[in-house]
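Structure in, sequence out. Go:
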């Protein structure tokens, strides 16, 4: 079943990041960069976690103090996002659109949450008479969110292209109805002479007293 988001228009001639590379190549490069970034953040979280467990005050300036729960949560998030990027790479490389769905769904939810968060922050800044900060947040946050949404739209467009291509190549299901025709029965031709002879034989047996004729 194809995932269809009606509010997202499909772009037939989609140029990934305004370059001449194909959509597939652009998504692979983007997913590889995302995977490396998640791996680096995960390693950094592990390093911070190890120093946090040692509780060495000398390392407080080198590694900002974070609680162990926060670091574990961050590491789990990096692992999940890395796994999703890995699925995206495998799905795009082997043209399996179903493996692209986790990235599409998670990234779509993240974009919606970021838009709502930016909207709330801008309202708060304007209410606190911080108009300059509000405009700056609107410009920077709007540009970053638009760029992320642009990349997501490229992934979604390629997903729909793979699904449509799969539907075109799939054989049409034709239902064959088998009709059983009963062979015509052979007509039995009754000879009147045979019937007359049979009755004659029955009467003769009755007259002779044979019980099998009863």
């Amino acid at each position: 079943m194809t995932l269809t988001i009606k509010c997202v228009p499909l772009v037939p001639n989609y140029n990934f990041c305004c370059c001449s590379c194909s959509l597939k190549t652009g998504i692979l490069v983007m997913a590889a960069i995302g995977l490396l970034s998640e791996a680096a953040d995960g390693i950094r979280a592990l390093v911070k976690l190890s120093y946090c467990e040692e509780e060495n005050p000398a390392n407080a300036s080198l590694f900002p103090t974070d609680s162990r729960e926060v670091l574990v949560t961050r590491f789990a998030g990096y692992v999940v996002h890395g796994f999703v990027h890995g699925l995206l790479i495998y799905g795009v490389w082997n043209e399996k659109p179903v493996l692209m769905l986790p990235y599409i769904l998670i990234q779509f939810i993240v974009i919606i949450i970021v838009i709502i968060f930016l909207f709330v922050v801008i309202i708060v800044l304007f209410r606190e008479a911080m108009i300059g900060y509000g405009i700056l947040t609107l410009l920077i946050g709007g540009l970053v969110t638009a760029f992320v949404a642009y990349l997501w739209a490229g992934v979604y467009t390629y997903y729909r292209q793979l699904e449509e291509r799969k539907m075109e190549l799939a054989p049409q299901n034709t239902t064959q109805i088998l009709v059983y025709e009963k062979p015509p029965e052979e007509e039995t031709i009754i000879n009147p002479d045979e019937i007359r002879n049979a009755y004659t034989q029955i009467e003769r047996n009755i007259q002779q007293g044979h019980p099998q004729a009863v």
